Amino acid sequence: MDQGKAPRGSGISGSATPTPHYTAGRELIEVLDASPDFHILLAEDQTILFANAAFHAANPDEAGPLTGQSLAASLLGLDARRAASRRIILDTVRCALATGRVTRAPIFRYDVQKTREHPPREAWWSLSASPLDLNGRPSLLLTSHEVTSAVREVRGEAEPEPAGGGSLVWAERRRLGQIFDQTTDLMSLVVGPDHVFELINPAARRLFGEPQLLGRSIRDVVWSDRGRDMVRRMDEVRRTGQPYMAQAVSFRMKADDEEHFLDITLQPLTNDDGAVEAIFCRGQDVTRQVRDRAVQSFLREELAHCQGNTLAVVLALAEQSAVHAGSLEQFRAIFAGRLAALAAVNAALTTEGPDVSLAGLLRGVAQRTGMAARLGGSGGGATLRPKAAITLGLMFHELLQISNPEPESGSTTPRIRAHQRAGCLHLIWISPLARDFGQTGDHFAHRLFDHAVRHEFGGRWRVIRRERVSAFCFEFPLGHSAWTRSGAAS
């Protein structure tokens, strides 16, 4: 080394060429640079003054020149465990500067990865921080020695015993690391005004959808309005030092991402001076619970609505049955039959609900009223919403009343065909006993069909008569709100 010059990577001067800043003896610099251990000289503000050749050889190439960088900035490693050990190193440095005494850290893992093209190598280290006086100015010498081989020798047995009871601290940190990595909650630690990820657990990485987040700002990966609102909350936490908690917060990484709901906690971490150094972010994914509550609320509202509709339907059936009944006994028979059909629809909704298929609806009404009907065709799987199911169930009951023969008549039971064509469900009801059904509008069934088909289903209908048979033809657009999407697809 040339006389009076400090080695490459040094931010201090040798003894032959003193500066008004920091001056160290040339012999000291040469010894540190030749050592196989890591040696770093720090200024009082934790700026790197010198890093020896061994440290340069292990540090990632992308880190660039180290002299003049802060120690915290140089320790943003490529691997998650590096970020976890960063806190141990910085705590050790702060303690040594504050107390003026040699401080030793517990053994920690800090994997070595020179470039992204090469996999990280597992490495374990001891660390000591020794206060120095350079030209009357306080500074710090960090010395780190690799103990990977010793750790491997005792792995599975007793942990190595660093000075100061470090094995207990190391075991505690290891257990905390397992909890952090394996919990289903979303956890991360962000530092600085840009909220750079220093720690992030697998659950949070899965939500963000990006494997490499360490060293990146959360501002660079969150683009939705809700996400930016959360970043503003983090700015507020950093500014005020007050924690923030919220429940069932709607959250999207990007505008077109699936919506998640999170219980959020933002907890500021302060140093001895009370300044916020980092923010611990915890999120519990409560998406399923929020959606379950929404379904329960919908079902309660739907139940109350259905009960009101059912009472209105019962009153209307009673009124119409009384108007067209010639006697009290006839009224009882007609009204009981229509109530039985209504009960059949409710039973089908309970069994198949909240939606019910066309085939299940007809089967339930026919069985409850003791009448026979045969359904064929490919449209029986179409499904209806509850209100539409009640209306169509009552229509089926009236059609069965019109079409079913007396036992002694010898006529056949009605035949029903359901087909889907051109976005519509075509329902054809063929019966030999419906010839007397009129279209004058004074028949209850006629009024029911006309109102339901035109107004509740947005369709049309007609009756075709032949000499011995009549056919009721209904056309229901499957795009109408009376039918479910799954029903239309089927």
Key words describing this protein structure:
about 500 residues, alpha+beta, 5-stranded antiparallel sheet, 14 helices, 17 strands, disordered N terminus, disordered C terminus
Describe this structure in words.
40% of the residues lie in helices and 23% in strands. Helix 10 packs across helix 12 (386-403), helix 11 packs across helix 12 (386-403) and helix 12 packs antiparallel against helix 13 (444-456). The strands form four sheets. The protein has a five-stranded antiparallel sheet with strand order 2-1-5-4-3, sandwiched between helices. A five-stranded antiparallel sheet has the order 7-6-10-9-8. The longest helix has 38 residues, at 287-324. The protein has 490 residues and is α+β, with helices and mostly antiparallel strands.
